[in-house]
Amino acid sequence: MKRLIAIPSLLFALLVAPGARALDLGVIGPSYEISEPHLLQMIEQRLRDKERSGELKRLEEQARERGIATVKHPPPVAGLHSTETARTFYFDPSFTLDRNILGPRGELLFAAGTRKNPLEVVSLSRHLLFFDGRDARQVGRARQLIAFYQGRVKPILVGGSYLELMKSWRMPVYFDQQGLLTRRLGITQVPALVSQEGLRLRIDELEIAP
Fold first, then answer.
1. What is the 3-state secondary structure (H, E, C) of the chain?
2. Using one digit for the tens of pLDDT, what is the confidence trace for 89-129?
3. Can you give the pLDDT at residue 22?
4. Which of 50, 110, 172, 191 sits CB 3.0–4.6 Å from 56 for a disulfide?
5. If we measure between CA atoms, which residue out of 207, 179, 204 comes closest to residue 128?
6. Quick one: pLDDT at residue 56?
7. Which InterPro entries does UniProt cross-reference here (predicted)?
8. Which of 198, 199, 191 is CA-nearest to residue 159?
């Protein structure tokens, strides 16, 4: 099939107008065969070429290795540092409802604007301990605190490999992904111990021995 350049609109009108005479205009400009392959076919061909050359397998292995490395060593939480000056402060987890909360039969349970504190319903059963697993001093202090509170501590890393620590300690170890908890609680120094006092959370940013 040939692809021709566009014919000017005036000339097109003359060609299709009633009573217009047929004219032999010849070829208007150069014409070309449409030889470009379909986009999907081109992509498939490139993938087949990469598969034959072994490049596709190499790329898959690199992606797998990056994924494993990210799981084993998540990016450390930014903006935190080892405690320089110990401090204690409190966090009120209360929040204000921005909409009505209805029951299963449509009855109003809590109206919009109601201020609620989740600690009225669920208490903090274990201390939350945030620390950097790359710092041997913080890891040692974490072990002391876990022993002191007889295991009633949830260890949460802000840096380092939680999988390696979990294997070493033989207990669950967590990671503060993207610093969601530390930012929410206002923690800037680690190690930091979070405990419940009444309807507030007490946060102690603890000093560690040099």
1. CEECCCCCHHHHHHHHCCCCCCCCCCCCCCCEECCCCCHHHHHHHHHHHHHHHCHHHHHHHHHHHHHHHHHHCCCCCCCCEECCCCEEEEECCCEECCCCEECCCCCEEECCCCEECHHHCCCCCCEEEEEECCCHHHHHHHHHHHHHCCCCEEEEEEECCHHHHHHHHCCCCEECHHHHHHHHHCCCEECEEEEEECCEEEEEECCCCC
2. 999 999 898 888 888 998 988 888 989 898 998 999 999 99
3. 45
4. 50
5. 204
6. 61
7. TraW
8. 191
> What tokens does 102 get?
């209805």
Which two tokens mark 48?
């087949």
Structural domains in the chain (count)? 2
Considering the domain architecture, whether residues 63 and 86 belong to the same structural domain is answered as no
pTM for the full model? Answer: 0.66
117 and 182, same domain (yes or no): yes
Nearest to 192 by CA among 127, 125, 122: 127
pLDDT digits (tens, 9 = 90+) for 140-168: 999 999 999 998 999 999 999 999 999 99
